[in-house]
Amino acid sequence: MTGVPAGRLADRFGARRMTAVGLVAMAAGSFVLSVAPSALGILGYVVPLAVVTAGYAVFQTANNTSVMADVLPDRRGVVSGLLNLSRNLGLVTGASVMGAVFAGASATTDVTRASAAAVGAGMRTTFLVAALLVLAALAVALGSGYRGLTAGRNRTGKARTRGRLRRGSAGP
């Protein structure tokens, strides 16, 4: 539900800005989930989780835009495949690591028999770790020196790749 609006935001405001906005939203939602008291009930879980989800959609759309923007047409398939592979590996690894964080923080060997307090402690710790990891990703994104979709272009706006014009573009 958030993919198309996220794409419009990336097109309108730029991939770099929306990458940062998406990561900030993910960090904020995760942080709220790490500190929200259980007295807030289901809304205390659903609202910040919706923020995380929307932030992820904005980040992923902007990230895809950034990665694919300056790829030569004859390399788009390979780069797209590598992007999908890296994203899948990250999702699988992240789910495993966060599951281990939850298991360690809940201090139980059988989560099906864990107390509500143990599950709550595991969830709070897991979302706090998630927020910290997203903040680290934000620092990397902001500190990378990425100049947005104008990176790799000459003064006339024609795309360049490692100092040479892209195939099919006119010379300066």
UniProtKB/TrEMBL annotation:
Positions of the Major facilitator superfamily (MFS) profile domain: 1-172
Presence of the UniProt keyword Cell membrane in the record: yes
Record SUPFAM superfamilies: MFS general substrate transporter
Subcellular compartments: Cell membrane
PROSITE patterns: MFS
Name of the featured protein: MFS transporter
Region (Disordered): 152-172
Keyword list, A-Z: Cell membrane, Membrane, Transmembrane, Transmembrane helix, Transport
Basic residues bias: start-end ranges: 155-172
TM spans (from-to): 18-36, 42-59, 89-107, 127-146
Membrane-topology descriptor: Multi-pass membrane protein
